[in-house]
Amino acid sequence: MSVQNGGSAAAPDILLRADNLTIKFGGLVAVQKFSLSVPAGQIVGLIGPNGAGKTTVFNLITGVYTPNEGKVYLGRDELTGRGAHVISRAGVARTFQNIRLFAGLNVLENVIAALSWQRRGTSLMSLFALPKTVQFERGLHARALEVLKFVGLSDYADWEATSLPYGLQRKLEIARALMTQSKVLLLDEPAAGMNPTEKDELAGLVREIVARFGLGVLLIEHDMKFVMNLCSQITVLDHGEVICVGTPTEVQRDPKVIEAYLGADTEAGGEDNSQGERL
Amino acid sequence: MEQLIEYSILPLMLFGITAIQALGLQLILGGAGLLSLGHAAFYAVGGYSAAAFTVYAAPALGITQPFVMMLLSLGVGAISAMLAGLLVAVPCLRLQGDYLAMATLGFAEILGTALKNIEAVGGTRGFTGIPKLSSLLWVFVVLALVWWMLHRFRRTGLGMAIQATRDDEIAARSLGINTYSSKLSAFVIGSAIAGLAGALYVHALQFISPDEADFSRSVIIVLAVVIGGMTSLFGSVLGALILVAVPEVLRFAPEAIREQRMIYFALIVIFVMLFSPKGLQSLIVRLLPKRKSSVGAVAAGGKS
Amino acid sequence: MFDLIQYIVDGLAVGSVYALIALGYSMVFGVLQLVNFAHGELFMVGAYFVMYAISLGLPWPMALALGMTFVGLFAVIMERLCYKPLRGAGKLAPLITAVGLSLLLQNLVQAILGPNPQSYPAQLPDSSVTNWLTAAVKGSGEVVLPQLPEGLFDWGDLVIRHRDLLIFLVAVGVTIGLELFLRRSRPGRGIRALALQPNAARLVGVPFDFTISLTFFIGAALAVVAGLLQGMADNQVTPFMGISSGLKAFAAAVLGGIGVIPGALVGGLVLGIAERLLVGYDLSTYKDGAAFFILILVLLLRPQGLLGKARMVKV
Known about the structure:
The structure holds three protein chains of three kinds.
Chain A: E1 14-25, E2 28-39, E3 43-47, H1 54-61, E4 69-74, E5 77-78, H2 84-90, E6 92-94, H3 107-113, H4 123-128, H5 131-151, H6 166-179, E7 184-188, H7 196-213, E8 216-220, H8 224-230, E9 233-238, E10 241-246, H9 248-253, H10 255-265
Parallel strand pairs in A: 3-8, 3-9, 6-7, 7-8
Antiparallel strand pairs in A: 1-2, 1-4, 4-5, 9-10
Chain B: H1 2-31, H2 39-61, H3 66-93, H4 99-116, H5 136-153, H6 157-167, H7 169-174, H8 179-205, H9 215-228, H10 233-250, H11 255-259, H12 261-275, H13 279-287, H14 294-303
Helix pairs in contact in B: 1-5, 1-8, 1-9, 1-10, 2-3, 2-4, 2-8, 3-4, 3-8, 5-8, 6-8, 9-10, 10-13
Chain C: H1 2-32, H2 39-55, H3 60-83, H4 92-113, E1 118-119, H5 128-138, E2 152-155, E3 158-161, H6 162-184, H7 186-196, H8 198-203, H9 208-234, E4 236-237, H10 241-256, H11 261-280, H12 287-301
Antiparallel strand pairs in C: 1-4, 2-3
């Protein structure tokens, strides 16, 4: 199966690099001097208490926000300040914490939409349904089916996306991101709301994605077991600043991390995964 | 019998033309999720340009064959409406917020004002002396073509990008979709389709006046699309049928009822938006025998 | 040269009415990012209501107060029934509903009261209800029509009519009052908080539904003031005054910076002056296009409006 062609042979070194990212909203510094790198074929974790700025980091990397300071690189290309769609096309795909599927499209179409931009130049042609565009559409269709099969959603291809069970909606977001053939995949709390079996399955899927396509994965997750099992490197964020970088074992022993989490526990009472937040 | 046929040609033609307009607006409203309150203005741009082409340009170019003239005037109508659409949409779609609705409305007012002051196209009296080139056949062939093209279009890459943009702009951008150009394409194609309808209209009635750009005409098209069901092409055509047929049928009704039809239409629109966003077409679809698998039916039920 | 100044002065009165309507558009847009398309119709309904109340024999201040309350409550009910269920359903659905409401109100008034303009005092339909109402309200007294002052300040080349000055002062006064209310009072601050940061406002305990209702109420009440002024200035009301003045007022709100209270005043005045200048220099056929020409220019050159600040997009 050849869903991805951004092969593993090309770049064994750092794929995604964030360098001293800072963003302020009004007077409030949401993220300060954030740096991180994601190598090819590895899963990097980004953790921290609620409100630490994790999703803001994702938004900075993917171009939803433009950082006030700092730079984002993919390989050697600088992506800072580019439009979100340009960054995506360059090879950074993401999923969303609050699932954002296309409600008016079915499951298969949600996946197809992820590569729809490739035919930009031929918009007039597609209006007249010329053979070339029809052929291209068939190709997209086939590829989308392959991706669905890979994540295990083949049986739901003609379901309305938003009528899927919660866990499957998260998988569909991953399928959509995979369809973009990106080099780096950013997963924002992919296991939220899943039961333990589903979580195990998801962990397997993420590993398989990395193994098969050589992607670099950056993962935000509250379930510590999930993160510790999957990630080779973890960055801990608190109040918008990196307080620790290291392997799972190193991070777990760091006193600053323990303090950040213990201090945050009182605030994070309402979090749906709070039982998994303990280190 | 012959009289009946004679009598029904004009309403049928108006139905076909309104249906084409509605299909164009469906792409903008249902496809891209944008509200154009000046759709009739783009229709008028198409109509006036097509008329100006056959009256002034075609004789100068030595084109006399009616079929060729009609075909070319359709092209002129579509392209001029498209350019007008581009002019209005480019500044608005870059902005956050729903300025497009008001700017399209504003464009319609400006166009109406301008047309009234251009003597070459008849000023306030309207543009007369346009050759009769269009016919019921032309109207329905164009309607069928537009319908088929738009039906195909939804499944093309651009069609998907437009719908994805409508459903969630942030997600669409995160997947590499240029949401600005998706919206722009939808708006411009929809406007071009309105221009086609305008070209058909002027060559059927041999007349067009600045009133055709009026806000009330644009509202009629919005009503057609929303009442019929803005999520489907069939709904737009159904809506056009309702909007054209109701006044015809009410011809024989007491005046009090006839005069109040806009009240009923307005009430239906509010009702549709609040309780049945898929419009009246969903009622008809529900009555038809089911073809889809049970999985599809469950999925469709899940949304409403 | 004196012509120019005269036109500007005359334009201020027209612009003041636009400004009063624009305030409502601006407030609702600020809080809900919704173009309340039916707002112009509230202005029209208000003008009718006050005119009928006066024609029944109510003193005008009471008629105005009743009208503001009635139309304000009407706007609140409209929001609860038609907009509230659509919160979270995207921007398109409430916008289309608003267009439907505008159409409904305009045609309802036309169907019930007739399409022709009506002037003061209104001809009341002869029925037992109106007779009873008239008797109950009027008692023995005559109908006292509200009169805008007729005098003028005459400085030779420059003439300022008292009524124009009054209308202008009302608009300025209302704008200042509203701005003070929004900055100083608790419910007013709630409205501002909701406009700035809806989620944060909820967290700190701003009553969400109440504040939105209040916004609609105030906007509608101010539109009634505009309706009375316009009705008296033209000495007539029509079912179509809402759509024409309403749309221009929206353009004024965008011009001044939608969501910014003094912006509505500035936008309205500039638009009024622009229209008056076109009429003054024999371009009156272009008058009705002017508002929209300005609207499109603003969207092109300075989309945040004259007094607006560019806002950070919320994700």
